[in-house]
Design goal:
The chain folds into four domains: 75 residues, DNA polymerase, domain 1; 94 residues, Beta Barrel (OB fold (Dihydrolipoamide Acetyltransferase, E2P)), CATH 2.40.50; 187 residues, 3-Layer(aba) Sandwich (Rossmann fold); 163 residues, 3-Layer(aba) Sandwich (Rossmann fold). Helix content is 37%, strand content 18%. Strands 12-13-11-14-15-10-16 form a seven-stranded parallel beta sheet, with helices on both faces. The chain has a six-stranded parallel beta sheet with strand order 17-22-21-18-20-19, with helices on both faces. It has a five-stranded mixed barrel with strand order 2-4-5-7-6. β14, α13 and β15 form a beta-alpha-beta unit. The longest helix has 29 residues. The chain is globular. It starts with 14 loop residues before the first helix and ends in an 8-residue tail after the last helix. The structure holds adenosine-5'-diphosphate and magnesium ion.
Length: 683
Amino acid sequence: MKFSDDIKYLKGVGPKISEKLAKADIYTLGDLLTYFPRTYLDWSVTVPIGEAPFNENVCIRAYVGSVVREHIIRKGMTTYTVDITDGRDIMSVVFFNNKYVKNMLKNGEEYLFYGKITGYGSHSKSMTSPKFSVIGEGSLKMKPIYPQTNELNSSLFEKLIKNAFENVDDIEDCLPENIRNSYCLMNYRDALYNIHFPQSYDLLSEAKRRIGFEELFLLQIGLSRLKLKALHSTSAVIRTDYTDEFLEMLPFKLTGAQKRAVGDCYNDMISGHAMNRLIQGDVGSGKTAVAAAVIYNCVKNGFQAAVMAPTEVLAQQHFKTFSSFFENTGIRIALLTGSVTPANKKIIKQKLADGEIDLLIGTHAIIQKDVIFSGLGLAVTDEQHRFGVNQRAMLGSKGVHPHIMVMSATPIPRTLSLIVYGDLDLSILDEMPAGRQKTETFLVGEDVRERAYGYVKKHLCDGYQGYIVCPLVDVDEDDDNAENEKVSSVKLFKELSDGFFKGFRLGLLYGKMKPDEKKSVMNDFADGKTDLLISTTVIEVGVDVPNAVIMVIENAESFGLSQLHQLRGRIGRGNVKSTCILVSDSKDIKTQQRLKILTSTTDGFKIADEDLRLRGPGDFIGQRQHGLPDIKSGNMLKDGETVRETHTAAESLLKNNPTLEGGEYDLIKARVNKMFSKGITLN
Ligand code: ADP
Ligand code: MG
């Protein structure tokens, strides 16, 4: 049989099963063979009952020491309990509604039990619904466990995949031999086999490396090709440099890093090709001023510019900032967000189409179909990690190959940026504006909260402002689930207004408020009309109020490190030393260690590296965040070595052969096209 053959011809697959497989996107033998185990049961290493840790999967070798006891708990719920012993300790094993175990587990016989230990103390350990097998059943060393879907259980997958291996005779390798040799990679067939049926730990890890390598390699080929494709000629050729003129109007001097970034953009824009550049800089590094300089250049050269921000609050703030940067320049600016009245929207759209607006600022409202520019030369996306590649592309499609600039304050580990931003050129703002004071961060328990609030009060009395950030918006008083233990902004706002902060002016901000309400709360805070803002994470992006110098973050353990770092970036924006207090009562040592990292560094890249190490790449490469193709080997991204290797491999292949000529690369092309099938093709 062939890799590409319909699954329904495989032994063991009837019409019913093939229908169910289709629901899991498995149509061909190849699809089945690349349906990978979620994990493996390792029956080869056993632990004594006395030493088995709680809440981890372990394998216990023990004798059954009792008959199976049947207990009807209620209608439809029967438990089957049996005691097992390894000669030193005893524990119980419980199954629900599984009467077969009565016959399968025989008193006095020895078995392997695989599962999680629960219970309290060492004397009442138990295991619920473990997998078990009779000793000496042979081949059980590492057993693949497949994700279960549509009533297709793991053992069925195992059986079918075994069948598939026996029958398929054309497992082709998409990586040519020269690449496999250079990077010491196992061939594809062996890799597939060992992913499903590992012959040893070493072979399993070799197999995973090979599969992960291939996927990252293909991903990078695709991204590099996108980048090459973007090298279009552009209608917006910037002829004269107005940078100096702009800098003279600016109330501060650009940092060296800002100047370099502006220079990079300018070089891109005179090249005759469209710029495609990411400005990455930690919170507060001054990305807005860079954008302003570039926009000024663009508009002075006769083109329109657009700035897209992920939230209404941020769009409004940008509108204010740019309006003040461009005061008395004659540049015509408009704000377009969801909350603009239909009548005003109409006027703005008309003016835009007539070329009477030079700079349009807004939320995704500006990528709607009926928003038409007369001559868009530059499209800027702020906080780009909030948008997908597609939304970015939609903004770009509003002009004829306009220059594209994206800004992101989410520092991501450098190796990962090769992937996540593989299609962009990069300028990094690694220098803070002069006079910035480092924000000091403390981690405290809830018993110290009152003192922390006292410290906040002291700052408010001195005329400064502050934030209290809560993980929840509101909680239902009657709902007593665990979430209730977390602090909610609405509740805290009520409590503090009449309590600890009585007499101060408090504001309340959360995502679901009406845009108008949000706007007025934000404006009041920015204008110093409120002293303390109680908020959810909506303030995470972009908000800039330099007089706010103190922040308390409640239930800090609920947030990722990078997110906390973002939140903390809302303070420390002026010339006064700022303080961030993380409140957490989490007793978990790992959580405490994780949060401590924030108290010891303000380097966003370092924090991102730690986040990657501790929480994996999900936060950085979620499909939602970056619009990248889904990849199965996301975890490989933790492995900087492989990321770099695949990057080098992809670059060197494309350098010599940018269009991948030659039959030996056909499979690569096909795979990349499939990977990027949502909208992007290679030719
Ligand atoms: P971010 O990179 O987080 O978007 P902003 O662009 O909002 O940062 O800038 C943060 C603050 O720093 C703003 O108040 C801005 O006016 C100020 N700023 C930016 N560049 C400089 C500079 N070179 N010197 C002094 N202040 C600056
Ligand atoms: Mg910003």
